[in-house]
Amino acid sequence: MALQRLEEFYPNYREEIFAGDDIKGFDVYAGDSDEKVGSVYDALVDETGRFRYLVVDTGIWIFGKKVLLPIGSARFDYGARRVYATGLRSKAQAEQLPAYNEMEPIDYDSEERVRGVYRGQDTSAAMSAPASYDRSSYSYDMDKPLYETNEQNHQTLKLYEERLIANKNRQKTGEVAVGKRVETETARAAVPIEKERVVIERVTPADAGRVVSVGDADFHSGEVARMEVYEETADIHKEAYVREEVNVRKEVVRDTVEAEETLRREELDIKTDGSPVVDKNI
């Protein structure tokens, strides 16, 4: 019946057994009194995973001594984070218990020394021990009051309620790509131009046929009249100009999304028979 520490057998014991809570650190009180004897240091389970002992660190009560408390001799108050060691009634009893050393394995003889101290503290018929024990045939069922939890002292009723959790997730809904492309078109431009031309007119003067004296007649060979002729040519070309600028940015638009759900919550329904005194602790 090898014993293991709680975390060795249940690596995730907080979630698997205590729903995220932890009994380690619970204050331990002697019997049902307000005398604090220490705190829960650890718990030991058997090869099937059943709780068998709480390891109680007695602190300054007995100079840091750690002792074993059978699980059936403990009453839990989860709300107050307390353990009442119903089987540990006095400092003298704790001093009789062998000290627990996590570096040393716990064998049958060690457990028998622990059980012997607790057996002697209960005078009820249910705690009457068998005449003898045999290490080869012993089972924890032979000491049920030490190892079976008392349902009256260990009932835990958890009340659940639903809560509306509002979170928001950021997800990509699309993408906008802004780019440029070149489009072509045919443009036409008209420029009026001027061209000069030489007009030669031969006309008959009004005094045609008049006799000119020899002195007035000047005959020269090779006489030339010169006139410059100009014309305009069209200069049509293309140039690039900035037409407009485009700014690309993002804006955050805020909106409120509303949802409605029906939430459930459990409430206690306490029924009594007779006139018991009930401390609802609400």
Helix content: 10-25%
> For the record, what is the CATH homologous superfamily label of the domain at 4-147?
Photosynthetic Reaction Center, subunit H, domain 2
Strand fraction equals 5-15%
Q: Please, how many helices?
A: 5
CATH class designation of the domain at 4-147: Alpha Beta
Estimated structural class: alpha+beta
| Silhouette | rod-shaped
For this structure, the CATH topology of the domain at 4-147 is Photosynthetic Reaction Center, Chain H, domain 2
* Radius of gyration, taken over Cα atoms and rounded to an integer in Å: 56 Å
Quickly give the CATH architecture of the domain at 4-147: Alpha-Beta Complex
- Biggest sheet features: 7 strands, mixed
The helix/strand order is EHHEEEEEEHHH
Distance between the termini: 43 Å
- Arithmetic mean pLDDT: 81
Total E-strand runs: 7
Low-confidence runs (pLDDT<50, min 5 residues)? Answer: 123-131, 151-157
Task: Tell me what the structure shows.
The chain is of the alpha+beta class and 282 residues long. It has a domain at 4-147: Photosynthetic Reaction Center, subunit H, domain 2 (Photosynthetic Reaction Center, Chain H, domain 2, Alpha-Beta Complex). The chain is built from five helices and seven strands, in the order E-H-H-E-E-E-E-E-E-H-H-H. Strands 1, 2, 3, 4, 5, 6 and 7 form a seven-stranded mixed sheet that branches. The longest helix has 12 residues, at 108-119. The two termini are 43 Å apart. Residues 123-131 and 151-157 have low confidence and may be disordered.
